[in-house]
Inverse folding.
């Protein structure tokens, strides 16, 4: 591993673990959690009461804290409410530019401040591709893309394939097509085989028990549906990502 500093942007509290948990476990870094006011667990999908939101938000924070500690991450929590708490269905991607514009200044300011604090080191920023087209993932991706020339003055930028969505072939193909269109095909894919980190990633995923009816016992839901048979993660970047997790 080189001396790069890694910054992971997670729309929700489990997204970086599910999508990039192997890399995060290997390199540590800084986690920016975005939409952390939540009412979703298995069993609370249709309950929007204040008491449920407060309880779920706390449960998910505790689950995520185990991941943060295990991976030696530092956290910034933006505490924005997730889509249903803002009045949108989770996968409603329509008319999101207005929301992105309202949220954009704080996220960009957070990234600018973090970049300045970390100094002259090589910084890699990881953001979601929005495979699966969840509204919150799309908004984060949109903000990064709208500010990419500015952010590239400080960061190397990569986008990760969102898991579990990218484990579904039809979602992955549609999501990649949309991403390639949005970026004019300027990004290339890198596969990161997990190797010996596979067991550790599964352990980390299982910390998010509130999100599963039955805890996963393998990484089938958390590996991109592509030609690579081994458990792996995948990123898209303009520059060559310098690290590999395993041979």
């Amino acid at each position: 591993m080189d001396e790069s500093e890694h910054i992971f942007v997670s729309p929700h509290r489990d997204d970086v673990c599910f999508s990039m948990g192997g890399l995060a476990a290997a390199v540590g870094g800084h986690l920016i959690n975005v939409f952390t006011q939540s009412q979703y667990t298995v069993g609370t999908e249709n309950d929007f009461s204040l008491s449920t939101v407060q309880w779920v938000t706390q449960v998910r924070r505790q689950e995520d804290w185990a991941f943060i500690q295990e991976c030696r991450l530092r956290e910034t929590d933006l505490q924005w409410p997730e889509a249903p708490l803002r009045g949108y269905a989770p996968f409603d991607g329509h008319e999101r530019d207005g929301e992105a514009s309202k949220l954009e200044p704080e996220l960009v300011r957070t990234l600018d401040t973090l970049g300045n604090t970390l100094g002259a080191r090589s910084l890699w920023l990881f953001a979601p591709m929005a495979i699966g087209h969840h509204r919150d993932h799309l908004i984060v991706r949109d903000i990064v893309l709208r500010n990419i020339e500015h952010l590239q003055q400080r960061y190397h930028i990569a986008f990760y394939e969102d898991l579990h969505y990218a484990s579904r072939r039809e979602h992955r193909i549609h999501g990649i097509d949309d991403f390639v269109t949005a970026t004019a095909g300027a990004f290339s894919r890198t596969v990161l085989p997990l190797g010996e980190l596979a067991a550790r990633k599964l352990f980390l995923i299982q910390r998010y028990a509130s999100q599963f009816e039955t805890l996963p016992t393998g990484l089938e839901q958390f590996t991109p549906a592509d030609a690579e048979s081994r458990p792996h993660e995948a990123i898209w970047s303009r520059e060559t990502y310098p690290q590999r997790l395993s041979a």
